[in-house]
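Quick one, T. Sequence first:
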Amino acid sequence: MQFALTELKENESWLKLYHSKMLQMIPHQIDSARRSLIEKKKKRYVVGQLKYASKDEWNTFVYNQSGFKIDKRGNTNLLWLSKIGWMEIRLHKLIDGKIKQVTITKRAGRWYAIIAVEAKPSLPKLIALKKSVGVDVGIKNYTYDSDGKDTPNPKNLQKILKTLTRTQRKMSRRVKGSCNYKKAKQWYKIAHERIANRRRDFQHKLSAYYARNYDVVFIENLQITNMVKNHNLAQKIMDAGWASFKNMIDYKCMVIDVEPRNTTVDCSRCGHKVPKTLAIRIHHCDQCGLLIDRYHNASLNILKRGLELWNLPMEHREVTPVEISEIEEAGRNLSAW
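Structure tokens:
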């Protein structure tokens, strides 16, 4: 496909107005999409066919390896792109490493530059299981951890749902392709962008809290695809964005998945099963008399199951994996004597 691009540039002079690396990435993306479809078909996934994207849908282009430069003049950060020129940018963090790729994308009328760098490998830090926590995610409370901290659900979609519905209604009443239709569509994109930004901001702050205070976070391995089949809760589950929250914690500290079966039913103190419906918010065990919030009970069970994966009881969770290996090695030396 790259050879066809060379011949096409000779016949179409307007292609010379664009940087060569940017043009080369388009056939690469098409070939990658085609290969991924083939791989999914081999794994018996139901897939469709590749389709052409309209000019309104194609809002991203990539500069790979060359054709870009980042500079600072005074207090202003600047980005230079070949065939485009210099432009002012706002860096939200310092760039540490060699820049390998710059992706320019447009979302809701705003342009973003996504910079990929080649970072230096860092040594993993010591994992201390004494700084571990079990986290139960939900709808009423977004999280409830084993230390008793509960975080209310911000319900980002519900707060802007009326505005979103109004913008959708306006867009459906416009003539498709007209200027008024494009204006209404722009407001529709802005509403979705606000929802996504608020959700992302909340998840970053909450995941940063757990990353600062804990080394290991145990969380349920929920099957969200099956959970959204309940149409009464599907919208609230998708609005919560549990998967993205879990990914944020995963790259900030260490996340270990735990089997979610019966975490709400089992008593965290004695293990006795206490069946309850969604309407029952309190866990009351008739066997041992434990009376706590159902989500707090579930988070304690998640922590207990997570520590069992390390073969450690709850009261000995201050032992680290490095210390465990040292104890095992000392035991082998004693047996050799």
